[in-house]
Amino acid sequence: MASSLSSFVGNDLERSRSRGLSFEEVWNNGGSDVFNVSRHSQNDDEENLKWAAIERLPTYDRMRKGVLKQMHDDGKIVHNEIDIGNLRFQDKKLLMDKILHLVEQDNEKFLNKLRNRIDRVGITLPKIEVRYEDLFVEGDVHVGGRALPTLFNVLLNIVEGIVGVLHLTSSNKTEIQILKNVSGIVKPSRITLLLGPPASGKTTLLLALAGKLDNNLRSSGRITYCGHELNEFVPQKTSAYISQQDLHIGEMTVKETLDFSGRCLGVGSRYDMLAELTRRERQEGIKPDPEIDAFMKAIAMSGQESSLSTDYILKILGLDICADIMVGDSMNRGISGGQKKRVTTGEMLVGPAKALFMDEISTGLDSSTTYQICKVMRQMVHIMDITMVISLLQPAPETYELFDDIILLSEGQTVYQGPRENVLEFFEHMGFKCPARKGVADFLQEVTSKKDQQQYWFRENEPYSYVSVSDFVHAFSSFKIGEQLEKELKVPYDKEQTHPAALVKDKYGLSNWELLQACFTREVLLMKRGSFVYIFKTIQITLMSIVALTVFLRTQNHPGTFDGGLKYLGGLFFAVTNLMFNGMAEQATIIQSLPVFYKQRDLYFFPSWAFALPIWVLRIPLSLMDAAIWIIFTYYAIGYAPAASRFFKHLLVLFSIHQMAVSLFRCIAALSRTQVIANVVSFLGFQIIFVLGGFIISRDAIKKWLLWGYYMSPMMYGQNAIVINEFLDERWSQPNTDPRIHATTIGKAILKSRGFYTQGYWYWIGVGALLAFAFLFNLLFIVALSYLSRKYISFILNICDWTKFFYIQFVNLLNGQIKISALGDSKTSFIMDEDEKKKNEKPSARKKDTRGKSKINGSSDQESRTGITLPFQPLSLTFNHISYYVDMPAEMKSQGIPEDRLQLLQDVSGAFRPGILTALMGVSGAGKTTLMDVLAGRKTGGYIEGSISISGYPKKQETFARISGYCEQTDIHSPNVTVYESLLFSAWLRLPADVNKEQRKMFVDEVMELLELKPIGETLVGLPGTDGLSTEQRKRLTIAVELVANPSIIFMDEPTSGLDARAAAIVMRTVRNTVNTGRTVVCTIHQPSIDIFESFDELVLMKRGGQISYAGPIGHHSQKLIEYFEGIAGVEKITEGYNPATWMLEVSTPLIESQLDVDFAQIYANSVQYQRNQELIKELSTPAPDSKDLFFASAYAQSSFVQWKACFWKLYWSYWRNPQYNFTRYCLTVIMGLIFGAVFWNKGTKIHEQQDLLNIFGGLYVAVVFLGYMNASAVQPIVDIERTVLYREKAAGMYSAFPYAISQVAIEALYTVIQTVLYSLILYSMVGLQWKADKFFWFYYYITTCFMYYTLYGMMAIALTPGYQIAAISMSFFMTLWNLFAGFTIPMTQIPIWWRWFYWICPVPWTFNGIITSQYGDLDSEIIIPGAPNMRFKAFLKERFGFHHDFLPVIAVVHIVWCILFLCGFGFGIKFLNFQKR
């Protein structure tokens, strides 16, 4: 359950027992007195008898029994004995209703009941005091442009890394300090608020206290829990760190997510404490409250799939309304962002940790919800003696007042730590005073900032001079609170006072078996939820088996002959290949699950093997099913050996191959950890396995020094086993008639001619080896999961930078005065300018004229020098009687809801006007974002009713996109471009064509100045939660991207979410300035401070169910809003200084509605304000005289050529700075070329027999297929990431799909041309092909166009499918078909007539034909054919493969056609298909 409830337990009773302590000694508070307990009356004999019966039970049984009071329909009250460990549905529902009713009415009273029960028998709860002394945290980073991950810099990193390993030179990285000599004490039973501006080191401090600091950072100092060092216990179990990042499995519901977390984290020592509690109660004759007793016993049961503690946490976090809704992800609709944040918090609250470190838990939450959650946290801390530190960005005044202590960080130093009541006294002592109607938390975060500090100087008789952070730190050490803290730190904590249950020494909360059961249960659930993938794979292999049986149909085969044997070999090879490729989908599945796995692994939810074993075991039936489907369809239809024993041995081989393949791909996924690298590495590994598998090149033709590779290839064992099973059958026992082959039977002769083994025991060697490889790969999978970190470390970079790899941006601006650095997950940066370096210089005093004025509405230097000056047309937006429906979710239908549609917006009306800043507010899930999406035309599904008008004319989405901007809640940007480039790109494509380049740049600079983005202008954006910009920087970029478009109407979805008070003020000042120019701006907002809230002109307040509770003016100091709600009978009056936004949300909750028996939406609908709004809507819905509807001569602001040019420019930089894709691709191209060259060394010139020809054919075949397939797969994650950005940019009307498509194809073509130059030179020279100009030209041409159509096909597959996983599976299906009909596995002349058409519409045969014919189509030498007369080379190519040298020009043209065809498919997909569900 919540840490509050679990803190009265511990995991360390074993230690106390080893010291000879009894339960009573462990939990005794040391006093002899026990509360006097009044005996319960004996009136209820039935209840007393049941309690007496329970008390007589053994401890184990007594802990599982309870009494539950229930009233029957006739009014009779009965007391039922219940089995806590196996509650019936009705009993569980009754108990939940009773407990949750208590929690809903008064959670504090409920917690006090729990605490009183514990206190009255003299049990002491464990407490934890956390101390940190002289804590330093440092890191090393590259400086300036050298830090950008370009291809050139990656090469330098490799060289530097190698030189560094050899100790030839020292590192040229710059050392930065994240935390500088911070010390303090976090005390139990006191809730602590951690404040600080961005980059102050808050996250790093919390990670350090929780024992989760990144290993790549250097730290010094001392952190102790109750005087114990971190290495004396398990800090990750004793404490819990709640991250900023919301990482969850999208296919699980909210309740399932928390249930799994609670199950894995365990109950700590709840059970042992409760056993001691009940023993003492029995001794004292105390009869506990039945509901409290049942609840405490229920949450002490470990290993439960669903626990009452989950229901409790769901209730206190307000998640009970979405408990059965899928969490969702970036592509699938789920719960809201605020609800996801609460799920992240709830995941750790259900565990037994007794020290909680919460990092920005309020992001995406409205101020009322934040207040309620912090209020509950305060109750838990005070009543249950929890140790808790919470980091918040913009706590409202009433939320701030809930905290006991404050830690204020700035620039990595502690400015203040101590009681909340004394913090203002300290700053007044320094000469700074918090103005009236200014939130104290906002003041604290701004007062240390050089740009904001002056406005708070209140000593009128003294000139202001900047007080640096170091000055504050020095002053605090001499302040009374600082002196007191220093005295406390000097006195060591007495370890003997540590409660034996306080510190946890067990890594996991359950036994190994229970953890394995939990992971098995979850994996089964996820497989059910992801059944579409498995069904798709089953359909795919079924279709492929049908194709195989029709291609290799037995009526076309001739067993007992050499020709027939070659065809059977082709069929068996295709079966092996198909079963191996079928396992590739496992790779995408594993990589998709890794982020959540790493989070849960590091929090000690479970050991890595417990995660891996269910995946391994549960895929075994799928392997058996896939193998069975293949063999059932193909075995007898193709005409393999008819004996039943051969059939089942064939099945065993295919099963073993499939198990080996899925194990290999999941191992590669765990080692690579990113989809791009995994794709490249898997194809490198698969290529080696494939080439040395015994079919492409025979064992006899492999160089002796490479034979080890042959025996290391798992495919070799599968290929040998399956062909031995077939060709040692009796029907292949005819005598061999070819004297050139030394074999007794024709079956053995066929095997020997292709280099396979002929001994029967090799079948069992093959099967055994395959199963051994499967075991080995799964073992490596577990090892990789156990020891590799979540940070991406590519194999190539790992060689040179063994333990360190950051995506770091460290920028030097042109003037050399500002340096910015972001390091890892700490999101910590340091800004140093020349003024701050001049410690002894004081800025000139300036007359203060802004104190006490709203920072947002007041004047500032920035406002006077900035303003948006480009011309625009002011426009209003009205919407009337808007309703929005979606199809009823299957989860809700399964609960018996009969309706087909779920209504999310209900009869919503309003008007947004130029020059009026409107706030759209409501609790999480009220429909704010939904309404904005509907109005902005961003919904991709659902049903909309009602009317929307723009300045009186019906809204047309085509033109509306040109004049509007939409700042989405999720900050989606291309990761590999800089901040400045992102803005320049947006302005380039969205500003009118008559705005020249210089004006664009000036406008972009102006917006950057406005949002204070210039210091980070040259920083890469990066991926959220991984690298690049911090959350607040990313949010400001999102706003800037829309502002540079100069829109008339701007929608902003939570523009201040994730920002600290100062950043929020900067953003809102910018928004206010934008509105003052005459634009129409609407913002959803969750946690506005008083001054931010009162910077809005009007408010639309929504309630759950998508209804409006109020729409109208806010008024000066929120007077009109307050008058409206206070005019409703029963509504509590607002108190002095209270935040009106929070008060408004609190007095309009569903709970208040039920208490007052009112409906605020209905009250509003009947109000005078509603009538005024309807009149305004009617007025604005009528076009003004002489006005015209919006019209643009073209659909886009720029021409198609300019669109292409801009997209190419952005993609050029994106690709150049993406080394994990391009650098890795080039490295592996060289590696693959060298491998192929080594295996097929000079095979191109030594062709005397058919097998020699087949060897070189096999070499050129795999040379084309594998690298082409690698290109197709490697490009897919890149396109997938950019597609998410594409959806936003396309919805904003920035460009058409086709210019974008052509630009991405053009940049891919550029890199592909370079790739094929490298590949062709290496391969052509090493294989020994003839150095003639025409032959090399044809070879290079076909390789280049082949790689291009493979790449284009991979891009098209992503564009036509909803996600990468489906694209990978569908692509593998078509790739397998391409390989089958490539002309190598089965030559064109042997393909049945009914399949010849597919041969001609398949791209690979054309490439294979072109390469082989261009190199050998003009040769006329003789070759030896086993079992047949010798033939001329030219005649053999024509008769066996159907290749004609005269056909080369046609083949060349067809390659261009394939490229154009796939380009059009890619363009069609991104233009007409949108898989983003909104």
UniProtKB/TrEMBL annotation:
Entry keywords, A to Z: ATP-binding, Membrane, Nucleotide-binding, Repeat, Transmembrane, Transmembrane helix, Transport
Chief subcellular location: membrane
Regions crossing the membrane: 532-553, 565-582, 651-671, 677-697, 761-788, 1223-1241, 1253-1270, 1309-1327, 1339-1360, 1366-1386, 1393-1412, 1447-1470
Biased composition (Basic and acidic residues): 835-847
Subcellular location: Membrane
Keyword set includes Ubl conjugation: no
MF GO annotations: ABC-type transporter activity; ATP binding; ATP hydrolysis activity
Lineage: Eukaryota, Viridiplantae, Streptophyta, Embryophyta, Tracheophyta
Keyword Phosphoprotein in record: no
Topology relative to the membrane: Multi-pass membrane protein
Protein name: Putative sulfate-transporting ATPase
Biased composition (Polar residues): 856-867
One Pfam family cited in the UniProt record for this chain: ABC_tran
Region feature Disordered, mapped onto this chain: 834-867
Family (UniProt): Belongs to the ABC transporter superfamily. ABCG family. PDR (TC 3.A.1.205) subfamily.
GO cellular component, one term: membrane
Residue span, ABC transporter domain: 163-436, 877-1129
